[in-house]
Amino acid sequence: MVYAIIVAAGKGVRMNSPIRKQFFELDGRPLLCITLKAFDLCTLIESIILVVPPEDFQYCIDQVINPLNLKNKIKLVKGGPERQDSVYNGLLAVDEKDALVVIHDGVRPFVSSDLIGECIRQALLHKACILGWPASDTIKVSDDTGYIKKTLSRDLLWSAQTPQAFDYRLIKKAHDTARKQGYTGTDDAQLVEMTGEKVKIIQGSKNNIKITTKEDFILAQAILNLNK
Fold this sequence. Notes:
Blueprint: E1 2-7, E2 25-26, E3 29-30, H1 31-41, E4 47-52, H2 57-68, E5 74-78, H3 83-92, E6 100-105, H4 113-126, E7 128-134, E8 139-142, E9 148-152, E10 158-167, H5 168-181, H6 188-194, E11 200-203, H7 214-226
Parallel strand pairs: 1-4, 1-6, 4-5, 7-11
Antiparallel strand pairs: 2-3, 6-10, 7-10, 8-9
Helix pairs in contact: 5-6
Pathway: Isoprenoid biosynthesis; isopentenyl diphosphate biosynthesis via DXP pathway; isopentenyl diphosphate from 1-deoxy-D-xylulose 5-phosphate: step 2/6
Protein name: 2-C-methyl-D-erythritol 4-phosphate cytidylyltransferase
Family: Belongs to the IspD/TarI cytidylyltransferase family. IspD subfamily.
């Protein structure tokens, strides 16, 4: 069984807008619709868990889920105060423990069903796999006074993306450990890394951007226009 956990519980503070970023319209529909459609088109996905603020449940049903006529049933789960809490709530909603879970940011609408599928296939082989994009900039490490300490080899550097796919028991254990330790990671893969487990990374897409600012939204509109 393969579950997708789509996390869309953010408040969109950086957008400085009363509308949550996941409900901003792209091509005349909430961008969350585009994200959900990509996962619904992936034939390996068997169930979708959508994590949103509880006050947005009805809006999601009326404006996002019903108009799409998806083949997969959508289970709505309430979000938490932070992304990591929202992912955990999604994990608790998984019915089958002998499963694979694919965790994705709801505000990354341009992931393809092909990439989702490849991430799943690699996770089935390695227990954990994420998408990433090779670093193109030169990365410097500085000290706390602002002076460069060293330059990293960008041949081994990646910008992490989602989806990130994991054996259910592996990612649940990683989240449980982080909660006990009071640790907050920057992504789910980091929590797995902290347990000593290996995570496979494969190339995603440069267009698989996370929309968090107004500038990102402008870029998203440009990507959408190029793909028409």
